[in-house]
Amino acid sequence: MYRKLYYVWLTIAICMLYTLYSCHSSGGIAEEQVPDTISYNFNIRPILSDKCYKCHGPDASHREADLRLDLPESAYKALKDNPSSHALVPGDPMQSEVYRRISTKDTTEQMPPASSNLKRLSPYEVQLIHKWIKQGAKYEKHWAFVAPRNYPVPQVKNAAWPKNAIDNFVLQKMEQASLEPNPEADKERLLKRISLDLTGLPPSLALMDEFLADKSANAYEKMVDKLMATPQYGEKMALHWLDVARYADSHGYQDDNYRTQWPWRDWVIHAYNENLPYDKFITWQLAGDQLPNATKEQLLATGFNRNHKITEEGGVIDEEYRVSYVTDRTNTFGKALLGVTLECAHCHDHKYDPFSQKEYYQVYAFFNNVKEVGLQSTVGGPETYAKNPMMKISNEDVKKILTFVNKRDTDKLIVSIMTDSDKVRPTYILKRGNYDAHGDEVQAGTPKSILPFTNNYPKNRLGLAEWLFNKNNPLTARVFVNQMWQEFFGKGIVKSSGDFGMQGDLPSHPELLDWLAVDFRDHGWNIKRLVKQMVMSATYRQSAAATPEKLKEDPDNTLLARGPRGRLPAEFVRDLVLASSGLLNPTIGGPSVNPYQPPGLWENATSGRGILANYKQVHGPNLYRRGMYTLIKRTVPPASLGIFDASNRDQCEVKRLRTNTPLQALVMLNDPTVLESARVLAAKLLQDKSTSTAKITKAFRLILCRHPEQKELAILTSYYTDELKTMKKADAEKLLTVGEYPVPANLDKITLAAMMKVVDTMYNLEEAITKT
Amino acid sequence: MEKDFLENRLNINRRRFLSRLSLGIGSVALGSLLIPDLFSGKGDEAEADFIPGIPNFAPKAKRVIYLFQDGAPSQLESFDYKPKLREMMGQELPASVRGNQILTGMTAKQASFPLVGSFYDFKQYGESRAWISDMFPHIGKIADDICIIKSLNTDAINHDPALTFFQTGAQQGNRPSMGSWVSYGLGSENKNLPAFTVLLSKGKGNGQGVYSKLWSNGFLDSIHQGVQFSSGEDPILYLNDPEGLNRHERRKMLDKLAELNDMNYKEFGDPEINTKVQQYEMAYRMQTAVPEIMDVSKESDDIVKMYGPECLIPGTYAANCLLARKLSENGVRFVQLYHQGWDQHSNLPQEMAGQAKDVDQASAALVTDLKQRGLLDETLVIWGGEFGRTNYSQGKLEKANYGRDHHPRCFSIWMAGGGIKPGIVYGETDEFGYNIVKDPVHVHDFHATILNQLGIDHKKLTYKSQGRRYRLTDVAGNVVKGIIA
């Protein structure tokens, strides 16, 4: 059995590679070859799911001709409309109605019908179906709903290359595709990469010098350990989780007034820094309040499920909103922790995945017992900055238990958290998802196809957390490991990191994903260990250079034959600029702040109520906090961050878009933060007693994190010299007015402005804000 | 017509290309960017389902200007004339009329629901003899150019979900806005301007705010996001170069950047580097194009007179209407205006008069202006809010002071140009102005119709995200044939 499965995976892998390979060769479809063994999971289900399940799938209400193609027993049996025919006759495509309908030229018979707006199957897909039926039309359970297996680490030809098990899995696929891995990236680029990936900040000059000077064999590992031990590691790791948890500093909805949920954010940073194991990290967030003798820290962690939007609009129908909060928690649970689109079963049975609407409401039942109301209060003072159930955080707490909460004043501080009512609120299926259309009553439970919720678990959130971390849960470990892979390699092994279901992408390296998941689980859900494993791999350390050949054969870098390269997340773009100029204020946590923002954005969009109606910019050191501390007002999220694809925190988000737009160019060119940083760094450089070449080199190292090439230096130096000659004093004076940080009085204005322009040019290089 | 069709077809290629590359707004000097390898690369998120057929049929409209009246203006004081309510002033809303309508928390506990007629008189205008309230005399004058729909209805009863529903086809947010769908479907007509722009203004009436999610690209590429133009110093965020840096200096810097970036490209081969260079060029062109558009100083006195003197005050509704015409004239596909302040729960007669004064003249002027320029045929203008208002008073009813609560069952909007029948009134409500009795138009139908006028079959404009093909009209929507010319 074991060997057989292994063989299947292997075949699949080869088939996939072949497909990929042939797709990108010039000939296209005609040259694609149908694999020898057809896999239902990898070859057939994607076609059926995409083209057939809409009408012949799990959703009973839209099923046509009473035919289901997602279940073998239903697909094999005689057709209801025509009992002499069968949709699938294993071994005999010509007798199978499915094959006939997808291959016919008769437009009245063809499937999918023209009216469905679904494209017809390609000739290649038709051939796949033909061969699959011929080989017995065998079904398999969807790969993601089978518990991950412990695959052996594969052998590779180039045994010298792998540094850990990850590399064996990756190299095996490269070798099958006749691709060679890239050499290791040069030390400077490598340091930039790990520094950004592990702390979200560029390395300091001292760190660069230290690493360049360290010729020992484990210099890289030492640096990894060092970076992971900094408190900035927790900040870096937290950012992704803030997206997942839809963390924000306002309640959302129309008045969108302030909330004080930031102590929960401080806890996330703390948890990552303390390396709280993933099972605890999640259990506390899901059910910290239900743990025996729950600590204040565990209570605070449950703020996770209260980060959703909460209305303050007078006159709303209370139950409508309460239902929307429970719905948000349910959807977040599905997407963030299970990596499935559970929300699709909110109004009807899921059209593609085996989740019934009833099961949706069974999951919903876990979150439906919170002591909360839809509208607790309209816009008001500090007493409205959290909603029941809530906890108070006193200065005493901060001294003793919640030491990581950055509370600097003696004001009352409240945070929304989870507490259930003693009396269980009955849960009903909501017909079409409408809050007031009660259907049958349901009990708390989970989708059977993932893992049944047996009577061994308590029927509360704590039980749900136990279920999540059951060894047989097929999704929990895979989903998190995949999210982490996405963080370090730019995209997940399953590219659709929020959808492991049938409509999602198939894993590019299924065995590796399983191996990582099992390894992670078996080593105590140790997040730091997982992270280190990834960044220590030879796969991760490769140079990102893409030769034309590699670009042609693998444009998306699916096979990982080159290192990751990509633009930084919005917050880290800001951090890079501030850190390299020396302006960055390294304070961790505390209330969010309002740095520079173009005027009028909040004012033009507000109802006029609440303390966020007008933008009150901060001054002094708080202007230079990391991007993750910029106050997020949901209805008008921070402009410069949004332009770089930051989440608006409206809903759970597990993956950001990464776009490249002219508005981003305008931010880099004209955002006062960038200009001010250029000015401040220029002023610092000019205080050095060194040549202008040395000054420019230093700035280059701070911003690009490497020494400039001779030609680069020549271009920048000549630009500087040229500016010195042509700059007018009046222009220089104007240019230097940007930003609130003082300009040193002792510097010549023209010299400073000329250097500022050179530094600013460096900030605008594509490479500056790119992980290289 | 055939030429339009061909033109749109040509746009498709450009749009597809742009979207694939995340290249940015409009077309750029693409020749230099033709890297064949890029085409084989799949999109990063979900695959874009490009339907080669778009436009699915010859479009009537090329562009849309949507004058959104944020907060929900009362239909009973604007376009739905109900003399019966005046007759029955102060009498109780019959339970049979109300039926099972759920009320908002603001009036649900009200002991009585006294009917209230319009404080303002109505007159009939034009050949269509449409009834329009005295608060909108200028719109009255263009009655024969517009199509009034009195039978709009929606699913939502609160502002946030209702606005979101109108703009994105779903109440919960994080879906692409209508303008984003149109940008995605048809691309840009102007290489120096975004395809979807947003203009905000504010009246003195009770306001409810607007939210950037209303012009969000949702799961579509962010080049389809609505770009907010503002009346401030920076008409687009971060558009202006810092003081002390002239165009020549900026050009010089961009040249250095291009040179340095190119060195990096030669070493790393990442196509994103070249894209970045092109984006900087696009940004540079926008820096010239946008201020030119914003400059109203060259508008003739007649135009200023037509829109009213406020059109010279940046940030007013009138100024935004004039700007909308200019943007649209320059090929911006979708210009979305929001005028806030229409939420009259109390003090309606006074507040609404102020709101009407803000918008009446300029809205009418926009239609007339487009018509005079021969652009109305290809530009669809829409005027309306997110739901209607109750026929009974919220709070105490006094003759000159009353309020109206939210009412999703029926409300009025109007459309002009873009192949919509001019000079008609479509749909009917009962004599209480509470229920629709003829030709209901649901929000999904409204969306389907707008897309139809742009040459798009609303069922075919889809995008696959998180395993599902989404459309603006979700799983519903029928084109309202009765209003199509």
TrEMBL record, chain A:
Domain (DUF1553): residue spans on this chain: 460-719
Domain (Cytochrome C Planctomycete-type) ranges: 52-114
Keywords for this protein: Membrane, Transmembrane, Transmembrane helix
Pfam family for this entry, one: PSCyt2
Transmembrane segments: 5-21
Boundaries of every DUF1549 domain copy: 166-371
Domain of life according to the entry: Bacteria
InterPro entries hit by this protein: Cyt_c_Planctomycete-type, DUF1549, DUF1553
PANTHER family per the UniProt record, alphabetical: CYCLOINULO-OLIGOSACCHARIDE FRUCTANOTRANSFERASE-RELATED, F-BOX DOMAIN-CONTAINING PROTEIN
Protein name as it appears in the record: Planctomycete cytochrome C
Biological source species: Mucilaginibacter gossypii
Lineage: Bacteria, Pseudomonadati, Bacteroidota, Sphingobacteriia, Sphingobacteriales
Automatic annotation (TrEMBL), chain B:
One protein family per Pfam: DUF1501
Top-level lineage group: Bacteria
Entries under InterPro entries matching the protein: Alkaline_phosphatase_core_sf (IPR017850), DUF1501 (IPR010869), TAT_signal (IPR006311)
Cited Gene3D superfamilies: Alkaline Phosphatase, subunit A
PROSITE patterns in alphabetical order: TAT
PANTHER family xrefs: BLL7424 PROTEIN, DUF1501 DOMAIN-CONTAINING PROTEIN
Protein name: DUF1501 domain-containing protein
